[in-house]
Structure formats: C-alpha cells, structure tokens
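Checklist before submission:
- one chain only
- standard amino acids only
- sequence pasted in full

Submission:
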Amino acid sequence: MQRLLRRLAISIVVLIGCICLATLVFDILMVRPVVLHIERTLSEAKPSERKPPKIVTDMVRKAYGSRLIYAVIRNALSASNQVKEMKTMHRQLTEFCVGILLPLHLSDAEIESFYISTAYIGNRIYGFSLASEHYFGTPLERISMIQAARLLAITHAPSAYLANPEGLERRVQYLLSL
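Returned file contents:
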C-alpha cells in the first residue's frame, strides 16, 4: 500500500512538473513575443492612445468586458505573424492559452491602450486617435461619449457600419445603453 501511495505521489509531482514546464515553454515561445510586440506598439503610439481618455476606456470596457483580451490577442498575434500557418482550432487554442497568461505580463490599462491604438476603424485607419481626427476633426482627448461609441461601433464591423448609417446608429445606441 505504501509503495502504491509513493508511486502515486511521484506520478502527481511529475505530472505537475511537466505542466509547469510546458507552461513556461509556452510563455517563452508564444506569450513573450506578443508582450514585446504590444510594448513596442505602445511605445510608438500617440500619447492620447497610450493614456486614452476615460470616456473611451469606459466605452471599451462596457462593449467588450472580459472579451477584450481576446480581441487584443487576435490583433497582436496576427500582426506578429505567429498564427499565419495555424489551423483554426490550433489558433483558437493558442489565443485561449495566451489569454490566460497575458494578464500576468500586462496591466488592464496596457491591454486597453493597445486595443485603442491598433483597432481598425475603416478607410485604412488604425487607432482611435487617427479615427477621431478623420471622422470628427477632433483630437481623441476631446471626443464625446457619442463619438466614442461611434468609433467603437465602427471597429465591430467597419465595412458594414460605414456603408450602413442606420445600422451604425443602432449599434451606437446599443453601446450607449450598456
């Protein structure tokens, strides 16, 4: 009986050790490059996107909630070409695992700032700062809640909402009601 318990204990320790080692390797090979890409992007972002206005961050939090991390990961992995050759299930599993480990490396504010600075907002415009200047002629620091909702709505489906003003307004009203 003692031999069996000792073998069981050793098996459990080895299993936990293998899981920890696999997590460490995954972190080094997949998560750290994403973190470096995000940090590099944020260092090059406009000041208004590095420290976005509260109206914008509140709107992003309301619209995405806990799903924001996966939108960020999708953008970051696509930009860093890490998932180009992956099949759908492999890519989704990778995104899920990176989503678990990424918050250990970056704060919520950094994750939100990365999204705000890299989101595609139609017409070859990336980032809320350029979009607010393009669509409203206003710097990001001065946009209203409705304008923030409009930008966020466009990020959801740029080609669909830019071509359909009624649909865009419905989405804006939905975001404002959250």
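Reviewer check: The CA atoms of residues 41 and 114 lie 7 Å apart.
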